[in-house]
Amino acid sequence: MSKRRRMEDRYRRFSFLSDIEGIKNAIGEMRGMCLPPQPALNREAHLSDNNPLPDEEWFIRTIKDKIANHPDNQMEYPFGGEPIFEEPLVGFVRGNDPIFDQFKKVIGPHHFSPWEIMRWQAEKNKVKPPDPDDLSVVSFVMPFTEKTRRDNAAAVEWTSERWAQTRLLGEIFSQTFVREIVTDLMRRGILAVAPDVTPMFNKKRYPQVGWASPWSHRHVAYAAGLGTFGMHDFLITEKGVTHRLGSFVVNLRLEPNCKRPEDIHADCLHYQGHPCLKCAKRCPVTAITAEHFHDKETCYQKVANSLKHCNTHYHIFIYGCGLCATGVPCASEIPKQLKRNTIHESPSA
Ligand code: SF4
Ligand code: SF4
C-alpha cells in the first residue's frame, strides 16, 4: 500500500486508536514518558581537525539545514508535501545569565536553570557537572507557513486543521531534530540536553501560575533576545507569533547574537500605547482584555475543549487554538510601528 494511501486510511479511521504519535506526544509532556532513551556521552572523544568545537555559526547552520532538508519537516494528509516550518531564527544566551534567577521568581522555583538540567545530564553520564559559566542555551524560532497562518486567520471558533496538524507534527519534528543535534554533540564528547525530551520535563498545574512546565521555551527565547511578549502572551519575534519555539543546553561558551530589550513587551502595540487589541477581538472566549490582560485559565479551558473538536473533525489527537495569534498585526512580523533591529548583523542569523 502506498504511503499516501496509508495516511489517508489513518486519517479516516478512529484517531483515538490510530493517532499513536499524537497520544505518545501528549503523554510525553508528563514525565517524558514514551520518549526514547537519552544519548550517552562519548567520554573517549577528543577535539581534533575532524572533531572541531562547534561554534555559533555551526549551530545556526545546522538548525537551518535541518529545517530546510529534514524529511520529517512535512505535513501529512490532506496537506502532504507541504513543509511544517519555514526558515528559523536562532539565538544564544549564556547559562550564567542572571535572567535565569529572575525566572525562578517570575515563573516559579520549579523552572530549571541551565545548570540544574545540565547537572542531571552530567550525573546520568557519571561526569562532574560543568560550571554555569561554561554553559549556553541555544534557542530557535520555527515560523509556521503562510498557508497555516491564513487558514487560522479565517477561523472564528475553533483552530483550523492546518494549524492543528502543524502543532502536532511540528512538536514531534522539533523533538526529533533536537534529539539528533544533542546526540551528535554527545558523540563528540560535548554534554548537551534538551529539557523537554527528558523525564525531568513534567507539565502540570502549579498553585500560582496554573499549567506550566519546568522549562519555558518562550522565556528562554526572550532571554536569547529573539522576541518579547504580547497581550496574548505569545512571543512576538521578527517572524511574528505564529511559530513553535525550542531550546537546548550545551556545555559550550556561545556568544549571544541578539540584543534583549529590557521591556518584555517592547513589540506589542497595546503595551506601547498604540491602539490595537486585535488579539482580544479574535478571542472567542474573551480571555484577553485591556483590564485583565491574558486570562490563562479561561484560555486553557477553551484550548482543552479543542481536543474533542480536533479529534472529531481533523482526526488527530491534539489540542490548540491560536486564533489570537492570526489575523493580527503581530502574526508574521513585529508590528510596523515598532520595528527595530533584533538580530545583530551576521551572515546566517
Ligand atoms: S494583536 Fe496587537 S495588542 Fe495583541 S499582542 Fe499583537 S500587537 Fe499586541
Ligand atoms: S489561544 Fe484561543 S482561547 Fe486562548 S487567548 Fe488566544 S484566542 Fe483566546
Number of helices: 11
Report mean pLDDT, rounded to a whole number. 89
| Residue share in β-strands | 5-15%
Question: What compounds sit in this structure?
Answer: iron/sulfur cluster
Number of strands: 10
Task: Return Rg in Å.
Answer: 20 Å
Biggest sheet layout: 4 strands, antiparallel
Shape: globular
Strand order of the largest sheet: 1-2-8-3
Strand/helix succession: HHHHEHHEHHEEEHEEEHEEH
Return the structural class.
alpha+beta
Written account of the structure:
This protein has one domain (3-36, 52-338). The N and C termini lie far apart (42 Å). It contains eleven helices and ten strands. The chain has 349 residues and is α+β, with helices and mostly antiparallel strands. The protein has helices at residues 3-12, 15-18, 20-28, 56-69, 99-106, 114-124, 146-154, 161-187, 217-223, 278-282, 296-314; strands at residues 89-94, 136-143, 192-193, 204-206, 210-212, 227-229, 235-237, 243-250, 288-289, 293-294. The longest helix is centred in the middle third of the chain and has 27 residues, at 161-187. α7 (146-154) runs antiparallel to α8 (161-187). It binds iron/sulfur cluster (2 copies).
